[in-house]
């Protein structure tokens, strides 16, 4: 089963068009498409950004994202080295993509 089987619309950059289509299966499919094998560490960050977006109704820039993680999950996780280990191509962009959120305005 792939994203086409799930009948989801995604942008040319792979972001969900309708965030309401998101669930954990969709996240898994998006991860496969992006060559990311999801671990508990990935899920912790994905679920964090979903909560952040629900609470604040916007996406942070990369610096605010990292600081917010540090505040909630601790310094060991709220640093760019840790986040790049999980999402080497760009933590904020890929976390938002896998979380079914819009593309962050600060991402190219």
Automatic annotation (TrEMBL):
EC number annotated for this UniProt entry: 2.8.1.-
Family matches, as Pfam families: DsrC (PF04358)
Primary location: cytoplasm
Any one Gene Ontology molecular-function term assigned to this protein's record: transferase activity
Catalytic residues (positions): 107 (cysteine persulfide intermediate)
One BP term from GO: tRNA wobble position uridine thiolation
Subcellular location: Cytoplasm
Annotated Gene3D superfamilies: 3.30.1420.10, DsrC-like protein, C-terminal domain (1.10.10.370)
Enzyme class at the top of the EC tree: transferase
Keywords from the named record: Cytoplasm, Transferase
Any GO CC annotation of this UniProt entry: cytoplasm
The UniProt record lists the keyword Transferase: yes
Family: Belongs to the dsrC/tusE family.
Protein task: Part of a sulfur-relay system.
NCBIfam families: dsrC_tusE_dsvC
The protein's name: Sulfurtransferase
């Amino acid at each position: 089963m792939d994203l086409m089987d799930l009948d989801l619309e995604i942008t040319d950059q792979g972001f969900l068009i309708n965030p309401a289509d998101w669930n954990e299966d969709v996240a898994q499919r998006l991860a496969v498409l992006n060559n990311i094998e999801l671990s508990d560490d990935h899920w912790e960050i994905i679920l964090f950004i979903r909560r952040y977006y629900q609470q604040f109704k916007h996406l942070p820039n990369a610096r605010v994202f990292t600081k917010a993680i540090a505040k909630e999950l601790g310094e060991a996780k709220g640093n760019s080295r840790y986040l790049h280990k999980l999402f080497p191509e760009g933590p904020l962009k890929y976390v938002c993509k896998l979380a079914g959120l819009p593309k962050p305005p600060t991402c190219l």
